[in-house]
């Protein structure tokens, strides 16, 4: 087949003319010859310059493998914390300071001091970007944390999307599962009795904090509330097959209601510790929580978690949002709680200080199967708390002191605060006792004396 078009056609004739003109020009015109030469050499130079990069990329793709984990994945905190704990992890030079609510970033924990309430003020030094070479089980790993700005529709910064990449020789593939297992054991898998608190991040959850589990017996409630709840929950976890056999959705919902500061949030965290579970805290009033996002979040709940919806009365008045900033619709919430997509095995705790303000649909059985009133402190509870603070006191001494206070008027948080203030001065507890029945001191205290910052998680 001839490389030229057919000369008998008009296009073939045109091509022939063009070819002849170019050949003649190149044969007789030195300027054209020089131009062509320069163009050819330039093209060669460009190709030669890109050759090492191409070669490197080819070699890299052929002989190395990459393990990448995105910041919103559950494995991210495991690997980030593991990396930060490696001796060479400290060689990363681009560090950021984040508060403890970003524990998922790994990094080095620093306690800067204690605040007015005696709580540690913690920050973390976390690697944001850079790369380090480290040796793992005889293999070289190039670890590279990085972050990318996330922008909203109007171009404003929403935050940063973090990711972590490990590059290694292809032969190290067998070490990947071990690496993941070790990172998991180092963090979430540590059987140290800690409870993980997760908060929403985009459509998924981020580990906000790992905290020591509070023993259940440090919480004192009236009657048999604690035992009943524990038994109910144990029964639920043991009954999966029974639910399946009965065709009943395998979910359990609890509504804890009562005045503030009597241990609703603390109870959820303590139960999580007792059952080896974690807590996912969701603020339904968050302005960026739409119906869709709530659905995704509930579908993506980390395994073995209790879902905690705090202060649900603060979101809707009846079925209407309490504030214009609330994006969630009442129906969206109902659907997420028990619609078709509602997660199997989910345990939800809702807390409220205002039962009367809630729409009955939100708390009907199926969404909230058990309603538990957690009221103000009874005398027996106050006596119980006195003996926790002062174990040497006899039951009669504690009962006698508690009997001087009105039944069900004070919050347990108020009693706790009073005792905390006098924990170094036993005599002051009895001496000032009448103050407890009086008005609550301090600007941060609510009507029942619940210090507002004693929530499971702020926000
Ligand atoms: N029943 C209780 N036994 C022991 N301590 C309690 C009890 N109730 C409350 N406290 C103490 O009071 C503090 C506040 O409790 P918590 O935040 O759990 O109350 P709450 O009912 O969830 O309050 P709110 O309705 O304001 O969220 C905690 O530090 C906890 O130690």
TrEMBL record:
PROSITE patterns to which the protein is assigned, alphabetical: AAA
Record field: catalytic activity: ATP + H2O = ADP + phosphate + H(+)
UniProt protein name: Chaperone BCS1
An example Gene Ontology molecular-function term: ATP binding
UniProt-listed InterPro entries: AAA+_ATPase, AAA_lid_BCS1, ATPase_AAA_core, ATPase_AAA_CS, BCS1_N, Mitochondrial_chaperone_BCS1, P-loop_NTPase
Top-level taxonomy: Bacteria, Thermotogati, Deinococcota, Deinococci, Deinococcales
Organism: Deinococcus gobiensis (strain DSM 21396 / JCM 16679 / CGMCC 1.7299 / I-0)
Superkingdom of source: Bacteria
Keyword terms: ATP-binding, Hydrolase, Membrane, Nucleotide-binding, Transmembrane, Transmembrane helix
């Amino acid at each position: 087949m001839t490389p030229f078009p057919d000369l008998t056609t008009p296009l073939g004739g045109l091509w022939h003319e063009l070819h002849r003109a170019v050949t003649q020009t190149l044969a007789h015109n030195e300027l054209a010859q020089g131009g062509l030469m320069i163009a050819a050499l330039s093209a060669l130079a460009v190709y030669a310059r890109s050759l090492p990069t191409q070669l490197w990329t080819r070699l890299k793709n052929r002989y190395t493998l990459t393990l990448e984990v995105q910041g919103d994945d559950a494995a991210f905190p495991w690997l980030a914390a593991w990396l930060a704990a490696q001796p060479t992890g400290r060689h990363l030079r681009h560090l950021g300071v984040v508060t403890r609510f970003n524990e998922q970033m790994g990094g080095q924990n620093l306690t800067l001091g204690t605040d007015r309430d005696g709580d540690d003020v913690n920050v973390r030094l976390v690697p944001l970007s850079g790369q380090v070479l480290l040796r793992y089980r005889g293999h070289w790993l190039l670890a590279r944390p990085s972050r990318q700005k996330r922008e909203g529709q109007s171009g404003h910064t929403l935050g940063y999307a973090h990711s972590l990449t490990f590059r290694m020789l292809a032969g190290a593939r067998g070490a990947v599962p071990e690496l993941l297992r070790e990172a998991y054991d180092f963090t979430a898998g540590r059987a140290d009795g800690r409870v993980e608190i997760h908060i929403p991040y985009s459509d998924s959850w981020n580990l906000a904090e790992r905290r020591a589990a509070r023993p259940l017996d440090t919480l004192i409630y009236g009657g048999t509330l604690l035992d009943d709840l524990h038994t109910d929950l144990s029964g639920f976890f043991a009954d999966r097959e029974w639910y399946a056999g009965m065709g009943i959705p395998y979910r359990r919902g609890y509504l804890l209601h009562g005045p503030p500061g009597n241990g609703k949030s603390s109870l959820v965290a303590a139960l999580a510790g007792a059952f080896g579970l974690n807590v996912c805290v969701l603020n339904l009033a968050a302005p960026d929580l739409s119906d869709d996002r709530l659905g995704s979040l509930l579908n993506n709940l980390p395994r073995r978690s209790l879902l905690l919806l705090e202060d649900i009365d603060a979101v809707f008045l009846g079925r209407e949002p309490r504030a214009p900033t609330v994006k969630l619709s009442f129906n969206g919430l109902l659907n997420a709680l028990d619609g078709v997509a509602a997660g199997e095995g989910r345990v939800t705790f809702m807390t409220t200080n205002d039962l009367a303000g809630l729409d009955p649909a939100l708390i009907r059985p199926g969404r909230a199967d058990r309603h538990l009133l957690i009221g103000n402190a009874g005398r027996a509870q106050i006596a119980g708390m006195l003996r926790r603070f002062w174990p040497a006191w006899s039951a009669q001494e504690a009962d006698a002191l508690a009997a001087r206070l009105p039944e069900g008027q004070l919050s347990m948080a108020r009693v706790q605060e009073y005792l905390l203030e006098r924990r170094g001065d036993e005599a002051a507890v009895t001496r000032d006792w009448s103050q407890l029945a009086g008005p609550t001191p301090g600007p941060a205290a609510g009507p029942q004396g619940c210090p507002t910052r004693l929530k499971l998680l702020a926000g």
